[in-house]
Amino acid sequence: MLLTIDVGNTHTVLGLFDGDDIVEHWRISTDARRTADELAVLLQGLMGMHPLLGDDLGDGIDGIAICATVPSVLHELREVTRRYYGDVPAVLVEPGVKTGVPILTDNPKEVGADRIINAVAAVDLYGGPAIVVDFGTATTFDAVSARGEYVGGVIAPGIEISVEALGVRGAQLRKIEVARPRSVIGKNTVEAMQSGIIYGFAGQVDGVVNRMARELADDPEDVTVIATGGLAPMVLGESSVIDEHEPWLTLIGLRLVYERNVSRL
Question: 114 catalytic, yes or no?
């Protein structure tokens, strides 16, 4: 089986693939202070619960694919693969790794690995032109051309960042649960904040995507809009532009990149 690991700024998502099918997944907090040994213990604890894997670390794992937006965690995961999975082929997404998606930006090396991986999966699943909206620590919008090229994107503050900022900077405001309120017009402070977050971000998504689509294709209706990320379900029902919801888009992209590189290892 293939173990895929997507390290984000806030959460790390792990997925276990049996062929093309994801058979298990886990979400843990990202902690840049964790050492390689701590990460290995964590992996053993999670995967030891799966009936298709053995009790010892690495049993049943045939390959590993990793992308990370946190360099220190990527360094420790590299050590994990070396010390604990030495005989298992591993692909760490970084410059030089074959993705199959040309990157047409001013400096391709500064584009986050997860954003490129999302583009890989979007092209494979839906073709181009496409826009991927990833609801993570930041809300990112990534554009893929009709020829399958990554052409750039938009980065905006994420939902959780906005909630925290309101709670910190607003004298009479506090941190709230991100949930859909009873109505758009809030009847109390909490509902008013929830409304601003949910409907404000839905409006942001619709506005940004419509502008991107007009630049990306002669007919904006040809653009497929894919939502992913842990907070995507909060906005799905309120946005009018999202065509597809694929919660495991990044993990699928990691599987594809692994398959395109493993024969070269």
Answer: yes
